[in-house]
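Reopening: structure tokens for the zinc ion complex, inputs below.
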Amino acid sequence: MTHTRNTPASAAPEPFPSRESSTTPPSASEEASPGESDDRSTRAAAEAMTVRPLRDRRYVVETDGGTYVVALDAGTCTCPDHAIRGSRCKHIRRVAMEVTAGAVPAPDERVGACAVCGAETFVPFDAGGARLCDRHAFEPGAVARDRETGERLVVVDVTAERADAYRTGEGRTVAEYATNADYGAHEPVVEAVYAASVRPGRSVEDCDRYGFPASRLTRRGE
Ligand SMILES: [Zn+2]
Ligand SMILES: [Zn+2]
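Re-run output (same inputs, fresh job):
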């Protein structure tokens, strides 16, 4: 049994995935006239461009005509179209489209890896610690099953603390418990209460919380 801790421990931040951050000077080959808004949107969607997020929340946009850097928050681009006309160029539009489509992280997000399956997932930019993809995350209030005991639990919180950093009330890390040996020490700890302990007149907050490595719990029905 793994009791939740009283002493919070901070988890080490995840390293950034390696990314190049090269840029080339703006090319003068771009042609765009003011007022061609629809045309720009069409080209932004249709033209061959590669968008990559940088570590400083900006984006590199590679095109046949050159490579530019877009700051979506500030609405700026290093291309001549933007520099000369101050317009919302096709590069800014393209970055916005890819963010909307979920192809690249938003400026307040970065690329992280799911601690359970390794899948790429967008996480809050400043988030440290272990993270889960949509497939392996739990919503607070979700019912889950403990793989070890088969018992049903109600998820209270998915922490960003790793199982080998999160300390229980007994002063041990979640990863140190023998029943957690089969689960990743790098996984985030999920706090949950036993479903059986939630009774009429007794809220989830009143129940004892326990911490589990994320993959020890399964969503009900999986
Ligand atoms: Zn541009
Ligand atoms: Zn995953």
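The pocket of zinc ion (ligand 2) is lined by residues 114, 116-117, 119, 132-133, 135-136 (CB under 6 Å). The chain has three helices and eleven strands. Marking as resolved unless the reporter disagrees.
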